[in-house]
């Protein structure tokens, strides 16, 4: 694991110079919770109330006792955050070469040099020292004991309150360590209760099986209790916040592996299990999943439920506590913290999980419905409002997950996020969504960007999409993809869907099977789709199955060419509708994330290239955007942008692209100029389509000359129900989408007036 991250920069959130002393704890824990924090992991989302010790991993040692890499130690910001919550901070010393380990413990000069160096580093801000030397040669059993004993005596002599701990293997192969002696010498022994199946295993299997087989976590705990003469107060059960993903010869559990495994952090493994279907391996009492890419693969890991069983084992055996490799591998998810809170926090009360489904719909000109799914353990909900998507108010409590926001200013974007609340506290907030009231609508913005690993997902990209739609004179509703999958609202109610794919990867899937089905069905009608995001082609074509590739070709109408087009600028292709439009997207220096892998794509079938990357030959590495229109003039249409729209960092360029896209998709007034010879000499009103309709239809008409035009909708009694427009317009063909979702079903009459000419049309709204 260290080799894979050796060149990574250490994560430091803030710079500080002064170290805060260790403070008293505010919240109590029934047991030790000892977490390794690798220097490459972020500590932004740690719940310090649920940690007793953070072990900073690591300073690296060589065979002569020298420090070869400190990896950012001392991280004063991390030390101060831990100390302010009463959390101890141990410094981890690592050495992973058995010959080098032998020299450090056998050579007096090297041993003395290491001990002096280690104590000096602890004095720079740590509260203890953790030794993770993997592993001492079995012939050096007594030498290792003597080494640890000398280290303990010298450390305690200079730092009496320093904690000395050591990482020990789940199985003491070849009687490598005198565990009874080490339990007396050390304050804690961290049992690495994982890697029972390792990356090079001949078969796939559980990384940390609780039971089953000759080697499992339960047997390891019992073996350590026996070996240490029940010195329970010195033993910490280390748990895995990662899984291993092997290529296998078949789909059967424990199938033979065909190559080495890929490590999956918990956040990625849990997301992939949700995508491919979480299974339960009963003999080991752990989750797993299988998938094809292109051959069979299997991943075994631990989730909140299986970790809770291990926590219960530690409590039943009266161990000192539990720990984990590694903090940060949950990457902002809260369920593993909730499992710790249930097991070890005083009282055991648990705040509710964050709502999953989130959707907002405009109600009328100045109100909207803001909705989340009900959470079983929530007593109420906090709805936060913002006008910029960044600065939110203090929130409005509601006993219901369905909130009606009133007195909203029309024709501005209103942003919301939500927390679930109970007596134990608040959940993490939802993503940010938005809505515009008072403007013509017909647009649904879908946040389908779920990925958190390997990218920067601020979960508020509705800000860029929503503001650009408003700049084009339109309103919109919004939702996350989970709300669509779970049927909270339906896409066919909207004329255009703007789908945010962001920078999705194969671990979370750009479009999973459920989403593919929804989009296929949506485009069977008179609907329009705008999709933007990088790595969609890489995910669906390079990493996907045949169904994924069919979706990419048949629905997005694209051919995948390259994983990285190697550019950060794109320009509209001549006669594409995007002519002379040039945009630049972020390389990580303009306030967003680095779009380092924009797909190179080509049109498939009768689709056309809309934008090309600057300086890139589309024939060699593909273009930046395609558009497709069904041959039926009233059929579906698709625009697919192969990099994230929200990462166009110039707002004027973003607005220009959205305006062109909505014009192409006929969502805003689209004027088609005519020549004098071909122009009719009078106003024409074409049949609206569809008719009957629910809730949108397209009004199409021709004006013979420029001038003032007015359109109004009346009911059967002749009462005006809706002014559609009252403005000066140019000569030519006009198309406008009309959204009547707030009117009841029935027959209406459209009255169109231009100068002295008046035409009327019968419309049928059928809900």
How large a portion of the residues is in β-strands, by DSSP E?
25-35%
Q: State the CATH architecture of the largest domain.
A: Alpha-Beta Barrel
Mean pLDDT: 91
Give the CATH superfamily of the largest domain: Glycosidases
Gyration radius, to the nearest Å? 31 Å
Structural class: alpha/beta
Cα distance spanning the termini: 58 Å
Largest sheet: 12 strands, mixed
What's the overall geometry?
A: elongated
The top level CATH class name of the largest domain: Alpha Beta
Helix content: 10-25%
Can you walk through the features of this model?
The chain is α/β, with parallel strands linked by helices and 767 residues long. It has three domains: 3-242 and 303-344, TIM Barrel, CATH 3.20.20; 439-664, Rossmann fold; 684-765, Immunoglobulin-like. Helix content is 21%, strand content 31%. It has 16 helices and 40 strands. It has a twelve-stranded mixed sheet. α2 packs across α3, α8 runs parallel beside α9 and α10 crosses α16 (651-664). The chain is elongated. The protein starts with 31 loop residues before the first strand and ends with a strand. The model is unreliable at 668-679 (pLDDT under 50).
How do the strands and helices of this protein lay out in sequence?
Elements: E1 32-38, E2 53-61, E3 67-69, H1 76-84, E4 88-95, H2 98-106, H3 108-122, E5 128-133, H4 141-158, E6 163-169, H5 179-185, E7 188-192, H6 217-227, E8 235-240, E9 242-247, E10 262-265, H7 266-276, E11 279-281, E12 286-292, E13 296-300, H8 304-316, E14 321-325, H9 335-344, E15 358-364, E16 367-372, E17 380-386, E18 396-398, E19 402-405, E20 413-422, E21 425-426, E22 433-436, E23 443-447, H10 462-471, E24 477-480, H11 481-485, E25 496-502, H12 513-522, E26 528-533, H13 536-542, H14 546-554, E27 558-562, E28 569-572, E29 582-584, E30 600-603, E31 608-613, H15 618-621, E32 625-629, E33 637-641, H16 651-664, E34 684-689, E35 696-703, E36 707-714, E37 720-729, E38 732-739, E39 746-754, E40 757-765
Parallel strand pairs: 1-2, 1-14, 2-4, 4-5, 5-6, 6-7, 7-8, 8-14, 23-24, 23-25, 25-26, 26-33
Antiparallel strand pairs: 2-3, 9-10, 9-13, 11-12, 12-13, 15-16, 15-24, 16-19, 17-18, 17-20, 20-21, 20-22, 27-30, 28-29, 28-31, 31-32, 32-33, 34-35, 35-38, 36-37, 36-39, 39-40
Helix pairs in contact: 2-3, 8-9, 10-16
């Amino acid at each position: 694991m260290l080799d894979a991250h050796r060149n990574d920069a250490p994560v430091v959130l803030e710079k500080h110079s002064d170290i805060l002393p260790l403070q008293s704890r505010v919240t109590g824990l029934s047991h030790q919770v000892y977490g390794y924090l690798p220097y490459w992991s972020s500590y932004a989302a740690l719940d310090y109330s649920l940690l007793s010790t953070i072990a900073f991993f690591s300073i690296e040692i060589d065979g002569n006792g020298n420090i070869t890499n400190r990896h950012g130690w001392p991280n004063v910001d991390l030390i101060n955050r831990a100390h302010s919550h009463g959390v101890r901070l141990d410094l981890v010393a690592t050495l992973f070469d058995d010959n080098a380990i032998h020299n450090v413990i056998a050579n007096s000069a090297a041993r003395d040099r290491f001990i002096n160096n280690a104590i000096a580093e602890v004095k720079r801000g740590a509260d203890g020292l953790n030794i993770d030397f993997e592993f001492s040669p079995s012939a050096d059993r007594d030498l290792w004991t003597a080494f640890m004993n000398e280290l303990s005596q010298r450390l305690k002599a200079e730092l009496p309150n320093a904690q000395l701990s050591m990482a020990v293997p789940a199985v003491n192969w070849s009687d490598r360590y005198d565990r009874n002696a080490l339990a007396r010498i050390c304050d804690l022994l961290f049992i690495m209760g994982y890697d029972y199946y390792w990356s090079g295993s001949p078969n796939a299997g559980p990384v940390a099986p609780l039971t089953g087989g000759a080697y499992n976590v339960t047997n390891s705990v019992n073996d350590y209790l026996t070996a240490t003469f029940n010195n329970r107060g010195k033993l910490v059960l280390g748990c895995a916040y990662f899984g291993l993903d092997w290529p296998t010869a078949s789909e059967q559990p424990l199938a033979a592996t065909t190559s080495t495994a890929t490590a999956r952090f918990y956040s990625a493994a849990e997301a992939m299990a949700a995508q491919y279907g979480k299974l339960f391996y009963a003999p080991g009492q752990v989750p797993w999943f299988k998938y094809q890419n292109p051959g069979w693969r299997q991943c075994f890991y631990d989730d909140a439920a299986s970790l809770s069983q291990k926590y219960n084992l530690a409590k039943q055996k009266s161990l000192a506590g539990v720990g984990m490799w590694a903090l940060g591998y949950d990457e902002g998810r809260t369920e593993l913290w909730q499992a710790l809170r249930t097991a070890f926090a005083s009282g055991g009360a648990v705040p509710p999980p964050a709502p999953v489904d989130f959707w907002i719909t405009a109600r009328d000109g100045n109100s909207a419905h803001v909705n989340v799914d009900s959470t079983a353990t929530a007593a109420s909900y906090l709805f936060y409002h913002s006008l910029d998507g960044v600065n939110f108010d203090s929130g409005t409590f509601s006993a219901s997950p369905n909130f009606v926001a009133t007195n909203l200013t029309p024709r501005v974007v209103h942003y919301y996020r939500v927390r679930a609340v109970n007596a134990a506290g608040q959940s993490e907030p939802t993503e940010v969504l938005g809505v515009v009231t008072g403007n013509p609508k017909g647009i649904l913005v879908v946040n389908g960007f779920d990925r958190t690993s390997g990218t920067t997902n601020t979960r508020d990209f509705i800000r860029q999409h929503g503001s650009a739609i408003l700049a084009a004179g339109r309103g919109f509703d919004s939702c996350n993809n989970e709300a669509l999958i779970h049927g909270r609202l339906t896409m066919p109610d909207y004329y255009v869907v703007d789908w945010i794919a962001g920078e999705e990867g194969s671990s979370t899937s750009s479009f999973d099977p459920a989403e593919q089905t929804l989009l296929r069905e949506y485009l069977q009608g008179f609907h329009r789709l705008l999709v933007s995001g990088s790595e969609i082609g890489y995910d669906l074509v390079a990493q996907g199955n045949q169904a994924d590739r069919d979706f990419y070709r048949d629905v997005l109408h694209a051919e995948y060419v390259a994983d990285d087009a190697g550019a950060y600028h794109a320009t509209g292709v001549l006669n594409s509708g995007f002519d002379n439009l040039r945009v630049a997207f972020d390389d990580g220096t303009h306030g967003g994330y680095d779009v380092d892998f924009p797909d190179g794509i080509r049109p498939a079938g009768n689709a056309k290239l809309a934008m090309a990357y600057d300086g890139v030959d589309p024939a060699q590495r593909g273009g930046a955007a395609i558009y497709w229109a069904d041959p039926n003039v009233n059929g579906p249409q698709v625009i697919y942008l192969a990099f994230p729209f929200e990462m166009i960092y110039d707002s004027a360029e973003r607005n220009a692209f959205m305006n062109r896209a909505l014009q192409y998709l006929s969502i805003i007034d689209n004027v088609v100029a005519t020549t004098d010879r071909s122009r009719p000499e009078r106003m024409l009103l074409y049949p609206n389509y569809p008719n009957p309709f629910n809730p949108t239809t397209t009004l199409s008409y021709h004006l013979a000359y420029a001038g003032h035009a007015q359109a109004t909708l009346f009911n059967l009694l002749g009462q005006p129900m809706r002014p559609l427009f009252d403005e000066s317009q140019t000569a030519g063909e006009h198309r406008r989408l009309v959204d009547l979702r707030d009117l009841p079903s029935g027959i209406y009459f459209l009255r169109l007036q231009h100068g002295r000419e008046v035409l009327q049309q019968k419309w049928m709204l059928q809900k």
